[in-house]
């Protein structure tokens, strides 16, 4: 089964499960706020991409940070996730597009007249095949105006024995049992576990950003059980 179809099956319970993850929503809000704070002083309204927007939780975080006078285009490959996003109330400046992140150059030409001020991508790149990640990061760079910013948030544990062990313990001891109880498609959470273990290390992602021409990288990690596991990087396209 294709990955997007697995997310389709999990979509109905996705928001419920994220509410049970301590710090999930706080981390999204903090990353969105950090991105928007670097864009203050840009022409209003801000124009933002939300890549891998899922059910719209990251989109909501962007709106909370930027206010309703903003244009946000959410992109996701899962029709089921976008269906969940569509059930929520959004201001006129928000719209959603079904596409893979690798299709960003084509979608951008159709959805935004010119580059955006910023890009937010939470839990996205590890779902992109490894041999396509450099091209995807380069496309993200190209869709941000000179002087604009990118915020990437994801789980990175490769090379950290303790973080990998904690991640495995949480997935098998908490996340997957909850997915069974809540009928949230446990298969996608088994994939989540594996995909994080296989995901780029922070150093490798940093190198991808360097190659794409994104500079002024600032890294941070979440608190609580996610410390050393969930990381956020902000980077700038030089003006």
UniProtKB/TrEMBL annotation:
<dbReference type="Pfam" id="PF13649">
    <property type="entry name" value="Methyltransf_25"/>
</dbReference>
<protein>
    <submittedName>
        <fullName>Methyltransferase domain-containing protein</fullName>
    </submittedName>
</protein>
<feature type="domain" description="Methyltransferase">
    <location>
        <begin position="50"/>
        <end position="148"/>
    </location>
</feature>
<keyword id="KW-0489">Methyltransferase</keyword>
<dbReference type="InterPro" id="IPR041698">
    <property type="entry name" value="Methyltransf_25"/>
</dbReference>
<dbReference type="GO" id="GO:0008168">
    <property type="term" value="F:methyltransferase activity"/>
</dbReference>
<keyword id="KW-0808">Transferase</keyword>
<dbReference type="GO" id="GO:0032259">
    <property type="term" value="P:methylation"/>
</dbReference>
<dbReference type="InterPro" id="IPR029063">
    <property type="entry name" value="SAM-dependent_MTases_sf"/>
</dbReference>
């Amino acid at each position: 089964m294709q990955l997007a179809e697995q997310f389709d099956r999990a979509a109905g319970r996705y928001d419920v499960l994220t509410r049970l993850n301590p710090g999930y929503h706080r981390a999204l809000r903090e990353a969105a706020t950090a991105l928007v704070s670097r864009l203050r002083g840009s022409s209003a309204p801000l124009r933002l991409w939300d890549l891998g927007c899922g059910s719209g939780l990251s989109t909501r975080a962007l709106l909370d940070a930027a206010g309703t006078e903003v244009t946000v285009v959410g992109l996701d490959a899962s029709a089921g996730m976008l269906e969940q996003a569509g059930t929520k109330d959004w201001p006129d400046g928000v719209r959603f597009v079904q596409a893979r992140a690798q299709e960003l150059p084509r979608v951008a030409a159709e959805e935004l007249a010119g580059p955006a001020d910023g890009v937010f991508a939470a839990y996205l790149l590890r779902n992109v095949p490894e041999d396509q990640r450099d091209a995807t990061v380069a496309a993200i760079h190209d869709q941000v105006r000179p002087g604009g910013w990118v915020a990437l948030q994801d789980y990175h544990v490769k090379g950290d024995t303790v973080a990998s062990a904690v991640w495995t313990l949480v997935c098998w001891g908490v996340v997957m049992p909850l997915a069974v109880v809540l009928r949230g498609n446990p298969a996608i959470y088994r994939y989540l576990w594996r995909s994080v273990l296989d995901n780029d290390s922070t150093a490798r992602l940093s190198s991808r950003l360097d190659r794409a021409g994104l500079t002024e990288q600032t890294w941070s990690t979440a608190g609580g059980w996610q410390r050393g596991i969930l990381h956020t990087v902000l980077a700038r396209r030089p003006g």
